[in-house]
Design brief:
3-stranded parallel β-sheet, single chain, 12 helices, 5-stranded parallel β-sheet, about 300 residues, alpha/beta
């Protein structure tokens, strides 16, 4: 029964990933709360999103990350808190940790992560500092004694796959594709709704308590060369591959403005260093989402690319 499932509060629920987490939580039968600053926004798109939340049975809780009273009240109403706050608010999650610690009733906290594993990255700047900020939130969570799950998911499909893995283009390749490194390093691509589903499934799962949940679907762990070959097969076209060696990638990171330098430094970690897929999960610290939840029919890269053909 739904009442047997934990009450989930999503902070950042109207954001890019947050809306998927809210939807997954409601769909999977959790009493779901979404913290929102304005329950009747003038922005039409946001108003429509909040209507979809209400239609799914989600409770909108008026509050603000920067108003500790409303934040504490929202946290007290939940068993699990999932943060999907954006990069500019990562450091301010200490306010959320403080509220969780004061409330004393939260049995699991998911800080905003969902990308690379920030405790085992050798990313260069500016990604290095961004990941250090996420790692600092992990340490603050642990220091506060708050039970946690950290979710690591590689690339969001909606960011990486419309350009078939290219970082320097927003569209699929027509005559040539730019590849960082030699193109043979494996990366991971996960559809946003699937990230949300695995995250919510872990909320009540003791196997994911105080662990990192790695979302690395086998069918979605491909090298850039494999990804491009798949696209060629789908379109019946072949195109030239332009390979950028690592020193050229590093030079471009240094010379690019914000946000391209951030995008490139993350891509360097993924496509050149192989940080999304090139490791074994330490069972003392992490669990594999696709092994914990083998019944989830995740969207494969192959299926995802069909929408662009």
């Amino acid at each position: 029964m739904a009442s047997d499932k934990s009450k989930i509060l999503v902070v950042g629920g109207t954001g890019y990933l947050g809306r998927h987490v809210v939807a997954a939580s409601a769909r999977l039968g959790h009493p779901t709360l979404a913290l929102v600053r304005d329950t009747a926004p003038s922005d039409a798109a946001k108003a429509e999103l909040l209507k979809s939340f209400r239609d799914a049975g989600v409770t909108l809780v008026k509050g603000d990350l920067y108003d500790q009273g409303s934040l504490l009240s929202a946290v007290k109403a939940a068993d699990v808190v999932i943060s999907t706050l954006g990069s500019l608010q990562i450091a301010d999650q200490t306010r959320l940790i403080d509220a969780i610690k004061e409330a004393g009733n939260v049995k699991r906290f998911f800080p905003s992560e969902f990308g690379l594993d920030v405790d085992r990255t050798g990313a260069v700047e500016p990604a290095k500092s961004i990941f250090a900020g996420k790692a600092a939130i992990r340490r603050a969570t642990e220091a506060a004694g708050v039970p946690y799950t950290y979710v690591v998911a590689g690339y969001f499909a909606g960011y990486a796959l419309p350009a078939v893995g290219q970082v320097l283009s927003r569209a699929p390749p027509s005559d040539k594709a730019v590849v960082l490194g030699d193109g043979n390093t494996k990366a991971v691509f996960v559809e946003e709704g699937d990230i949300a589903t695995y995250t919510v499934l872990a909320a009540d799962d003791p196997r994911a308590a105080n662990k990192t949940l790695y979302i690395k679907p086998p069918a979605n762990t491909l090298s850039h060369n494999e990804l491009l070959a798949l696209w060629e097969k789908k379109t019946g076209k072949t195109f030239e591959r332009v390979y950028l060696p690592e020193d050229a990638v590093l030079k471009q990171i240094q010379e690019s403005p914000i946000p391209m330098n951030i995008v490139l430094s993350i891509a360097h970690a993924a496509y050149v260093r192989g940080e999304q897929a090139g490791f074994e999960i330490d069972p003392a610290k992490g669990v594999d989402a696709t092994e914990l939840y083998p019944d989830v029919k995740y969207t494969t890269v192959d299926e995802y690319l069909n929408r662009f053909v």
